[in-house]
Write a structure and sequence with these properties.
By secondary structure, this protein is of the alpha+beta class. It has helices spanning about 10-20, 35-45, 65-70, 75-80, 95-110, 115-130, 135-155, 170-175, 205-210, 225-230, and strands spanning about 55-60, 85-90, 160-165, 180-190. The chain is globular, with a radius of gyration of 20 Å. The model has no long low-confidence stretch (mean pLDDT about 90). Bound molecules: flavin mononucleotide.
């Protein structure tokens, strides 16, 4: 089993990763608006296929709404107790409504799409690829990247988080007015832990989850201190 030890003063990113726990209980203290704003800004800096950014986040702070959401999340207490719950959704239709146009306009104005010919090619590719794609899988793939960015950004800002998949999608939909064209991907409770936080549960050794070149060839870890490996960038 692999463990991860936070090291103060170096490897800031490794520390954030190591420190994060799925917080079981939250204090009622509110999350300052500027921290919430920063976490949302950083979360939505995530990459996505064709830069289409199909994630949609509903920030739920109203106590009545959180109570209703808790009922849709199999009664999980943290949904009501955490000061903020972010409902991460993936919009399966926005790309063809207006988002592809926006991505192309943004790309043209920043220069990341250098000319109209490239813009037309992107439009053709997206229109050929997405209609043949399982959009539930596609929006999940994209949204969970932004969700992870958001979770780590929040941790870096001194907040605690709890990711959740335990919810009834139809109930969450009707509670928050989410259309059928959007999938509810995950919930993220956000706030400050009511200690004790949960102990770290360990992670599989790399040999169990990483292969070297082929499925039948397990990764062989270097015999160096894993702590060093994680916090010491190659410079
Ligand atoms: C996508 C996802 C869904 C999860 N759903 C729930 C949930 O519904 N309820 C819950 O109590 N914990 C949930 N968890 C928390 C996991 O149990 C927890 O992340 C895991 O045990 C590892 O612990 P750690 O996050 O503290 O390292 C979820 C985690 C993830 C990533």
């Amino acid at each position: 089993m692999r463990n991860l030890k936070a090291v103060e003063g170096r490897g800031a990113f490794a520390n954030v990763v190591a420190r994060r726990r799925a917080t079981p209980a939250f204090r009622p203290d509110p999350v300052p608006d500027d921290l919430l704003q920063q976490a949302l800004e950083l979360g939505t800096f995530a990459p996505s296929g064709y830069n289409l950014q199909p994630w949609r986040f509903i920030v739920v702070r109203d106590p009545d709404a959180k109570r209703a959401l808790r009922a849709a999340a199999f009664g999980q207490e943290k949904v009501e107790k955490a000061p903020v719950v972010i409902v991460a959704c993936g919009d399966t239709a926005a790309w063809k409504d207006a988002d592809l146009d926006r991505v192309i306009a943004d790309g043209r104005s920043t220069g990341s799409i250098p000319d109209d010919k490239t813009a037309s090619m992107i439009r053709r590719n997206v229109n050929a690829f997405l209609p043949k794609t399982d959009m539930g899988v596609w929006v999940t793939r994209q949204t969970m990247i932004a969700f992870s960015f958001l979770m780590l950004a929040a941790e870096n800002l001194g907040l605690d988080t709890a990711p959740m998949e335990g919810f009834d999608e139809a109930m969450v939909r009707s509670t928050l007015g989410i259309p059928e064209t959007a999938r509810v991907i995950a919930l993220l409770a956000l706030g400050y832990a009511d200690p004790p936080d949960k102990p770290f549960g360990g992670r599989f050794d790399l040999e169990r989850v990483v292969y070297d070149g082929r499925w039948d060839t397990p990764w062989r870890s270097l015999s160096i201190d894993k702590e060093t490996l994680l916090v010491n960038p190659r410079k």
